[in-house]
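ok so I'm stuck.
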Amino acid sequence: METILILKNRLGTVRSIDIANELDYTKPSVSVAMKNLRENGYIEMDGSGHITLTKKGLEIAETMYERHTLLSNWLTQLGVNAKTAVEDACRIEHVISAESFEAIKRHVGTKTEG
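replied:
not stuck anymore, here's the structure
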């Protein structure tokens, strides 16, 4: 869902092939994932294959994107190589609790404000 949000902002419209190319996944893998997201109410797909996030999907995607952006920037500021920081942030964003993320967010905010 995060990738759909990023591609929507970058390209304006999103299709399965765009997601496959962005993530370097096969089209059949993306098709299965899109079917699951659609069945769970996170995305809608029109007759032309254009994918849009539902309200529920958008809320989750925005949360994940905020986590990813803050964590990758924070790790980079700590001296982690940019590529590694992005990869680690991607893993962390899916398992970190809301409480821990909010604590990091407060900590990073106090560091940048002072």
